[in-house]
Design brief:
about 80% helix; 7 helices; globular; about 150 residues; mainly alpha
Length: about 150
Amino acid sequence: MRRNSSHYSTLNIYLIFAAALVYEAFASMHFYLTPLIGLMFYFSIYFLEEEKYKELFFILVFSLYLEANRGLISFSLSIYFVFIYYSFLKNLKLYINCKTCLIWIYVTIAYCGYYVFSIFLSSILNVDMLPLDIINYLIFIVSDSILVFLLS
């Protein structure tokens, strides 16, 4: 008798999502754990290009959880991801063929760009929310890049 593999792929999505939520709960308690912004950015680009909207919905929910857990402005990650993707990164694969280079570029743009974007939003909304030091972001870039290499 043949088993349906679509149930396993849906189950994998739920398990990965649950593991990411548990990890983010630990990451909010321990300062040195990465918030997985670069990983979310890379996979949101991947799911947009593959038109996998169910997985993209889970990334949206995870980003809202991350923003609420870390005290960031609501929907700021989602707005930033969509803005950067459609304004700059949509055709980047046409110019750069190196997958390793693209991973580094995506993760670096995710963290450094979000750093600048959150400062910009803080000044517009008159909210006293300054992001972490840039050294922490560099550590997060390296660790998220390694995670994307391992998961992609």
